[in-house]
Amino acid sequence: MRLQGPRKCSTRTLDSLDTLLTEKLRDVYDAEKQITKALPKLTKAAHSRELKDALKEHLEVTKGQIHRLEEVFSMLDEKPKSRLCTGMKGLLEEGGEIAILRKRRIWDAAHLREAAPKLL
Does residue 95 form part of some domain? Predict the structure, then answer.
């Protein structure tokens, strides 16, 4: 696929598929980094041992994905830099709103299960 002239993505011009790939990798890299910050909070909020264990396991998997992304950046001779992934930011904010329910004593595993598919 060939881009028809330069296109804008954020503040950078997408003049090639290489640039597009790099920008998308930065987006995914940021999403994974955001997840690694959110999962410990979700784990702490969970009441179910099973759910806590699943979230801890997912954190380890996510750390592995970050490592693989860093390897890809290296193969492309690029620094592993983030570009804000607004989609993940929105999902995590929604998950945070659900976590607030816990402080109101409405929290239960069903609420977290409701948010988890969006976050995981």
Answer: yes
> Mean pLDDT by 10-residue block, N- to C-terminus, for the chain (120 residues)?
44 71 95 94 83 93 97 94 91 71 51 61
pTM of the predicted model as reported, rounded to 2 decimal places: 0.69
Residue 82 inside a domain? The answer is: yes
How far apart are alpha carbons 107 and 99 in whole angstroms?
8
Each residue's pLDDT tens digit, 80-110: 999 999 999 988 887 666 665 555 444 455 5
Q: Scan for tokens 């299960």, then name that residue.
A: 113
Task: Evaluate whether residue 87 is within a structural domain.
Answer: yes
CB 41 within 8 A of CB 103: no
For residue 33, the enclosing domain spans 16-119
What's the alpha-carbon Rg for the chain, to the nearest Å? 17
Burial of 90 from C-beta contacts in 10 A (0-12 / 13-18 / 19+): exposed
